[in-house]
Write a structure and sequence with these properties.
This protein folds into two domains: 95 residues, Phosphorylase Kinase, domain 1 (2-Layer Sandwich); 229 residues, Aminoglycoside 3'-phosphotransferase, Chain: A, domain 2 (Alpha-Beta Complex). The chain is built from eleven helices and 13 strands. Strand 11 and strand 12 form a beta hairpin. The longest helix has 21 residues.
Length: 357
């Protein structure tokens, strides 16, 4: 075949249809476009709302790749979203965006999905006084717990050993190859993973980045869960459970000046990065109690020994260090992992009496 001839098509097989242009799609839709997000990392994407004129309500969301890395992420997100739609109907499916079309902009993919209802949990989280209120924070944890329970039950698959270490050690070796302390970190992490592997867990679909920035709420329930590019149809459900708790704790001191006590949390000061996670794991107060009960309750529901809550949290910190796109965020999580002690067996008590909230 010469270049001039082009590819030969088998008789009766139609030529593949190229993706429609995003500009053409928007023009024909009659909707107004509003850019709401522009990321700048290697996974950079544009996020565009398509809004119904007059109502001001978003109807569709377009995620546009601006790099080859982002293009692969969008393709991965399309796969998981389309896979979830093939499952039997269950109520939580209404909270997941549905793929409408695949377009192109400047030669890269642009995925169109339905817009799910609700306001970002990050909006309320960052509102003054929200994270100082036991009642409001407990409502956030309860909403996350209820959604995860329904999602994980509705997508449950076969049981397998709990493995929060898949690919983590190799990525850490690659990312921190010149770090003399990494060998000790990996030995410690392997001990943690080995203890966790003693548990059997029903595998399920996994979101992969289940933190409050990707959750939408209506009242006190989760009405939308977005950004599924790190998801999997079958994985370890403990990953989502741990990610929510850790990220919620991480930003508790965000609005507090360095050195000052964080409002509503007597044992938390805005000091070294990650102080909120240290507070949740190692200190006393209503938030550490809530954090630990959330993990223990979720682990128990999944068939995992609740006393594994601390190991699961430490494994989750190491996973963020391994997989995040941001090098500084990664390094800070590795340093946080190093600061948090590994407790002897007799000190790893469940610490989770009572309900999840």
């Amino acid at each position: 075949m010469t270049v001039a001839e082009g590819p030969r098509r088998t008789a009766g097989v139609p030529a593949p249809t190229p993706p429609k242009s995003l500009r053409e799609f928007v023009d024909k839709s009659g909707l107004r476009s509003l850019v709401i997000g522009v990321s700048k990392d290697p996974n950079a994407k544009l996020t565009i709302l398509l809004v119904q004129p007059g109502s001001g309500r978003p109807t569709l969301v377009v995620k546009v790749a601006t790099t080859d890395h982002a293009a692969r992420a969008i393709e991965a997100e399309m796969d998981i979203l389309q896979g979830l739609q093939q499952l039997h109907p269950w109520r939580v499916l209404a909270t997941v965006p549905r793929v409408v079309d695949l377009l192109e902009l400047d030669g890269r993919p642009a995925m169109v999905t339905t817009a799910v209802a609700g306001a970002p949990m990050s909006t309320s989280y960052l509102r003054w006084g929200h994270t100082s209120s036991h009642e409001r924070v407990a409502a956030d944890f309860a909403a996350a717990s209820a959604w995860l329970a329904e999602f994980q039950t509705g997508t449950a698959a076969e049981s397998a050993r709990l493995d929060l270490g898949a690919g983590v050690a190799s990525r850490l070796r690659e990312r921190f190859a010149g770090d003399d302390r990494l060998g000790a970190d990996l030995s410690r992490l392997e001990r943690i993973h080995e203890r966790l592997r003693a548990n059997l867990v029903r595998r399920s679909a996994v979101h992969g980045d289940f933190w409050f920035g990707n959750l939408l709420t209506t009242g006190e329930r989760l009405s939308g869960v977005v950004d599924w590019e790190a998801g999997a149809m079958v994985g370890d459900p403990v990953r989502d459970l741990v990610r929510f708790a850790l990220m919620y704790a991480l930003y508790l001191d965000r609005r507090t000046r360095p050195g000052r006590r964080v409002r509503g949390h007597r044992q938390l000061r805005a000091e070294e990065w990650g102080a909120g996670v240290e507070y949740a794991l190692d200190r006393e107060g209503w938030f550490p109690d809530l954090f630990r009960r959330f993990l223990c309750h979720g682990l128990s529901r999944l068939g995992v020994a609740p006393e594994c809550w601390r190991d699961a949290a430490l494994a989750g910190i190491a996973e963020v260090a391994a997989v995040t796109d941001d090098p500084e965020f990664s390094r800070r999580h590795l340093n946080l992992f190093r600061r948090l002690p590994e407790l002897p067996q007799d000190e790893r008590s469940p610490a989770c009496l009572g309900s999840a909230t």
